[in-house]
Amino acid sequence: MQLDNKFQVQKFVCIGRNFGYPSCCIKDFVIGMDWRTDIDVSPVAGWEETCFIPCVKCRENPKTELIQMISNRRNVVDAFPSSAKGDSTLYDSIKDEVLEIVDECMSVIARFK
Ligand SMILES: [Zn+2]
Hints:
By secondary structure, the protein is mainly alpha-helical.
């Protein structure tokens, strides 16, 4: 996949944020979706059934803490780690955070073009 469009990136960031994933993990995952970048987005041992790929930094944290954090940030009904439907709605409550992540993703991706 090639991510050249800001709205394309925004859609993925929104889904990740509504699922409650930490900003750092969303950022790495979205950047890694672009084949031109060098971020590995292969499933991580211990997280395979969750569809969530913790970033390198968060992999160091205890799994229970990360699950608790994700559960608290979640905007979807289904409790983590059970699967939920992707929601790419840019709610007011997450808007600033999402737009900041989108900008960061776009500037990193731009370096690989
Ligand atoms: Zn992270």
